[in-house]
Amino acid sequence: MSRAIQITAYGGPEQLKLAELPVGEPGPGEIRIRHVACGLNFIDVYQRTGLYANPLPLTLGMEGAGIVEAVGEGVTHLRVGDRAAYASQPPGAYCERRVMPAKCVVQLPEGIAFDTAAGMMLKGLTAQYLLNKTRPVEGLEPGDFVLFHAAAGGVGLIACQWAKALGLQLIGTAGSAAKCQLALEHGAAHAIDYSREDFVARVKEITGGKGVKVVYDSVGKDTFEKSLDCLRPFGLMACFGNASGPVPPFYPGNLGPKGSLYLTRQTLFTHIATRESTQKMADDLFGMVLAGKVKIRIDQRYPLAEAATAHRELEARKTTGSTVLVP
Ligand SMILES: NC(=O)c1ccc[n+]([C@@H]2O[C@H](COP(=O)([O-])OP(=O)(O)OC[C@H]3O[C@@H](n4cnc5c(N)ncnc54)[C@H](OP(=O)(O)O)[C@@H]3O)[C@@H](O)[C@H]2O)c1
């Protein structure tokens, strides 16, 4: 049996209930993992509210780190006793132990602590594919400007550091002066408090009127339209989240007069669809962390049983960096 946080109906944080669930043995292509730490991500909120629908009852959570307890038939890249970490579908990480597909689980290097891993797999692999693979048609060169919303959040602080390592000038937005300061301390070249400042005007000012090559927008509804106005011709609007709500239906004709812009909606799960791509991206992330180029900040820790409090804080924009749940 394993303690787990489940929902039986979509709704607010009050739906998160502690349950005792059977665990069982891994089948072909699966492992059983005992979590040392689990990650909290904004996608958990979308799954809790039903914005992203899943069959109910549902144990939430897409990110974790721990020890491999059992290995199913055909799994060759993991052994019993291995330190391991993952960002993976299906949801189910908010628990002590689970059986799950082995495909997206990788061995965790000795130099990376379990809670660090639980705070970085989903967010760090996202920063990896955004900055390295989600690029404008004209490419990205050192010195280029990009705009990254919610820069003091979990994905945001990793992206600030990674962008700096790539030589990019990341302009970060965040909802307070303290969060802006945090983004700057983590490598953002500029920071805009979008709760007080007009971020379009500030981006124009910073880039000498030219605009940025890419906007990485996970805020969604509140920033989408204005983000388009921050792009230079042929720029890329990379939507990857809905923290403020989903973007309403959009008319592609609007992209023409704004400078023949490109629009994409990215999701990590396309990038980690195979074991090979997951391992390659994870190796890149581990390399950045072990080299000290990307530091993972765990600014909030909660016992697993207090997952509802963690959700409330995340939705109230009270968190910075990564949050872990400790089973
Ligand atoms: N598509 C993908 O592959 C993928 C993968 C990972 C994450 N994501 C997305 O990336 C975003 C960041 O994820 P995360 O887990 O690291 O979360 P996070 O950035 O730590 O938290 C979300 C942040 O969004 C900002 N925000 C703006 N408007 C908001 C609103 N109305 N309500 C709540 N927050 C609001 C807040 O920062 P400020 O107060 O500074 O505005 C808040 O701290 C999320 O939208 C998530 O869904 C997408």
TrEMBL record:
Domain Enoyl reductase (ER): 11-325
Pfam families: ADH_N, ADH_zinc_N
InterPro entries in UniProt: ADH-like_C, ADH-like_N, ER, GroES-like_sf, NAD(P)-bd_dom_sf, QOR-like, Quin_OxRdtase/zeta-crystal_CS
GO MF annotation: an example: zinc ion binding
Annotated Gene Ontology cellular component terms: cytosol
SMART domains: PKS_ER (SM00829)
Domain of life: Bacteria
Protein keywords: NADP, Oxidoreductase
NCBIfam families in UniProt: PRK10754.1
Cross-referenced PANTHER family: QUINONE OXIDOREDUCTASE PIG3-RELATED, QUINONE OXIDOREDUCTASE-RELATED
Protein name: Quinone oxidoreductase
